[in-house]
Amino acid sequence: MDKRIEEFIMREELMMLTATELDAENCRPIDFPESRRVYAWVRYPSKAFRVQALAIAYTRTAVKIRFSNRSS
């Protein structure tokens, strides 16, 4: 990841889905048997970034991912 983007990301807190968007009461997450490599958009207050991530669980409306915002 570009060093400037990394520095920018480190200043802002990642925006998560809201409780309404997750609808956890009606949509229980299902774990993938094995995590799956995906590309996902993650949002910060002022910008979104496309990252390589691991999908670890899903519902009918969302996917739970794990990613690192550090350079490899």
Characterize the structure shown.
With 72 residues, the chain is α+β, with helices and mostly antiparallel strands. Helices cover 18% and strands 43% of the residues. A three-stranded antiparallel sheet has the order 1-2-3, with no helix packed on it. The protein is flat. It starts with a helix and ends in a 6-residue tail after the last strand.
Give the arrangement of secondary structure elements:
Elements: H1 3-11, H2 19-22, E1 30-44, E2 47-58, E3 63-66
Antiparallel strand pairs: 1-2, 2-3
What percentage of amino acids are in beta strands? 35-45%
Question: What series of H and E elements makes up the topology?
Answer: HHEEE
Strand order of the largest sheet: 1-2-3
The tally of helices reads 2
Oligomer: single chain
Mean of residue pLDDT values:
85
Report the sheet with the most strands, covering strand number, pairing sense and barrel closure. Answer: 3 strands, antiparallel
Radius of gyration over C-alpha positions, nearest whole angstrom: 13 Å
Shape annotation: flat
Number of strands: 3
Secondary structural class: alpha+beta
